[in-house]
Specification:
It catalyses: 5-amino-1-(5-phospho-beta-D-ribosyl)imidazole + S-adenosyl-L-methionine = 4-amino-2-methyl-5-(phosphooxymethyl)pyrimidine + CO + 5'-deoxyadenosine + formate + L-methionine + 3 H(+). By secondary structure, the chain is of the alpha/beta class. 50% of the residues lie in helices and 9% in strands. It has an eight-stranded parallel beta barrel with strand order 3-4-5-6-7-8-9-10, surrounded by six helices. Strand 4, helix 5 and strand 5 form a beta-alpha-beta unit. Helix 7 packs parallel to helix 11. It is globular.
């Protein structure tokens, strides 16, 4: 092979099969995509061992992609149920699945994903280390943390969230500047606790070059984890979050020096009026590396409806530069999501992503809406069902309140503006009450 990673290939002017496939989906010239990848502005996460992958590119000038978090936990051990969620997520348009398993035979589940699933697969090795070694946190050694990273690489995952931005200096500043909700990142809290108990530097930061060597070998995308992401709107844009982002910007440059693809993870919870500025800060500090955001959730008061709070924030974030939205389900903060929760979360995220794509002028994004509008004008219900995000729900809603006349709905009936405008413009008489 004449190249090591997709970024290396792009810098050498080599067009890969993955680039061709991704460019076709984006309706763009492959040379344009290659130029973006050479600069680190777009990525194609694609481990050389993930043979079932259908490649997708991620970048702020491309279609906004969504990620779905799933996995096995102590309270929900059914692997087949999680696989069903994965398959449903892919059918509903999710480009990425992130395996957050934290219990049981995590490796078997992970290998099933990279063997069977066409979506991008991501993991968080720090979770798996705790499960794999099955011993007290403080007894895990720096080398053992790194060994888990290599294991995930060998298993074929396309990107890994590595919490390397929180080091001893950042941790010290965090303790001096109190937060309302402390550290809410699971991986961030684990590595912070390990550092506190052992007195050692974060091994993912200290041995960053070794991790990059692993990523380069397998062509794994580094997802630079935001251990200090805000967990409530009060903590948004504080010292801990911004200082970690500065470190992630430095680590981005070091990854690019080794031709390793990078995306940067971002906030959590954030008021509406701070989102655009945060996107700009990230683009500046991380030189345009794709930004991967969880939401952001724009209010803290909506458990049970956090797919909505996240979709509001996600649409704004993607409009102003985020490339990749991590879905949030109605179960966020409450429980592991079930099949219905996963569906609701995906639909909400896809709406947010598509709304942002229209706003930023992504090629072809508004065509879908124009086709839907044309079908509505014709009162072509079958075409409307075909074009909508959730045809099953749309059909069910119409069937549950079947109108007296098929060319209307039960909301307007003879008062239907679309029907009456079509008729009057064709020279017909419109009586409404007499019909």
């Amino acid at each position: 092979m004449q190249y090591t990673t997709q970024m290396d290939a792009a810098r050498k002017g080599i067009i890969t099969g993955e680039m061709k496939a991704a460019a076709k989906k984006e309706q763009m010239d492959v040379h344009e995509l290659m130029a973006l990848m050479a600069k680190g502005l777009a990525i194609i996460p694609c481990n050389k061992r993930h043979t079932s992958l259908e490649p997708n590119a991620i970048g702020s000038m491309l279609r906004t992609k969504i990620n779905v978090n799933l996995g096995i936990s102590r309270d929900c051990k059914d692997m087949d149920m999680e696989i069903e969620k994965v398959n449903n997520a892919v059918k509903m348009g999710a480009e990425s699945i992130m395996d957050l398993s934290s219990y049981g035979d995590t490796r078997t589940f992970r290998r099933r994903l990279t063997t069977e699933c066409p979506a991008i697969i991501g993991t968080v090795p720090i979770y798996d280390a705790v499960v794999y070694y099955h011993k007290p946190l403080k007894e895990i050694t720096s080398q053992q943390w790194l060994d888990i990273v290599r294991m995930h690489a060998e298993d074929g995952v396309d990107f890994m969230t590595i919490h390397c931005g929180i080091n001893k200096e950042t941790a010290g500043r965090f303790k001096r500047n109190k937060r309302l909700t402390n550290i809410v990142s699971r991986g961030g809290s684990i590595i912070f606790a390990w550092m506190e108990m052992t007195g050692q530097e974060n091994p993912f930061y200290e041995h960053y070059d070794e991790i990059l060597d692993i990523c380069r070998e397998y062509d794994i995308t580094m997802s630079l984890g935001d251990a200090c992401r805000p967990g409530c709107i009060q903590d948004a844009s504080d010292i801990s979050q911004i200082e970690e982002l500065i470190t992630l910007g430095e680590l981005t440059k070091r990854a690019w020096e080794k031709d390793v693809q990078v995306m940067v993870e971002g906030p959590g919870h954030m008021p509406l009026d701070q989102i655009a500025a945060n996107m700009k800060i990230q683009q500046t500090l991380c030189q345009g590396a794709p930004f991967y955001v969880l939401g952001p959730l724009v209010t803290d008061i909506a458990p049970g409806y956090d797919h909505i709070t996240a979709a509001i924030g996600g649409a704004i974030a993607a409009t102003y530069g985020a490339s990749f939205l991590c879905y949030v389900t109605p179960a966020e903060h409450l429980r592991l999501p079930n099949l219905d929760d996963v569906k609701e979360g995906i639909i909400a995220s896809r709406i947010a992503a598509h709304a942002a794509d229209i706003a930023k002028g992504v090629k072809g994004a508004a065509d879908w809406d124009n086709k839907m509008s044309a079908a509505r004008k014709r009162l072509d219900w079958e075409e409307m069902f075909r074009l909508c995000l959730d045809p099953e729900k749309a059909r069910r809603y119409r069937a549950e309140a079947k109108p007296e006349k098929e060319d209307t709905c039960s909301m307007c009936g003879n008062f239907c503006a679309v029907k009456n405008m079509n008729r009057i413009l064709e020279g017909e008489i419109v009586n409404i009450y007499d019909e």
